[in-house]
Design goal:
Length: about 140
């Protein structure tokens, strides 16, 4: 983890490079580089982990700034896992939302989030409005 450089700014981010790293790691969800830029710039806080020019970690948190927040895009590149990088990404994001209720969805990483104090909560529901990633802008 010591070689990973963390940043919480979107300034100068190579969105195509981030997308390429996520595609390589099969953690891309169909966004274009421009959609990656918008989704990060519209987030409450973001974290990028780099080694040299390459992206090896990422995460975002959405928040209303008062009571509710939502963790998304939490990712550590496969060769850098189990070194505390993901924990550091989440720690930095949670530090921006004191006093708030933080939710997330995960299919198979419950063990990771459990180490960070999250507990499964029944009653979650979700849906997509229209077609995934289609905001009508063409
Ligand atoms: C989930 C993810 C971000 C974890 O990142 P990471 O950098 O490996 O996590 P850390 O090294 O900080 O792990 C902290 C602790 O969480 C637990 N943990 C992490 N990954 C785990 C796994 N695959 N299985 C079980 N426990 C795990 C361990 O207790 C670990 O501490 P330890 O290594 O000392 O035992 C990473 O596996 C990942 O990017 N996965 C693919 C994308 C993904 O599924 N993201 C989550 C979407 S909701």
């Amino acid at each position: 983890m010591s070689e990973v450089e963390f940043s919480m700014s979107t300034d100068g981010v190579d969105w195509a490079g981030l997308r390429a790293a996520l595609v390589t790691d099969r953690f891309d969800n169909g966004r274009t580089p421009e959609q990656y830029r918008r989704s990060h710039e519209n987030s409450h806080a973001v974290v990028f982990g780099r080694v040299g020019d390459g992206y090896v970690a990422n995460g975002r948190i959405l928040s209303d700034g008062v009571c509710n927040a939502y963790l998304v895009d939490i990712w550590t590149a496969a060769p850098y896992r189990r070194r505390g990088v993901g924990r550091e990404v989440v720690r930095r994001l949670l530090a921006t939302v004191p006093g708030q209720h933080v939710a997330l969805f995960t299919d198979d990483m419950t063990a990771f989030y459990a180490t960070l104090g999250f507990r499964a909560q029944a009653g979650g529901m979700s849906r997509i409005v229209g077609r995934w990633l289609d905001d009508g802008r063409g």
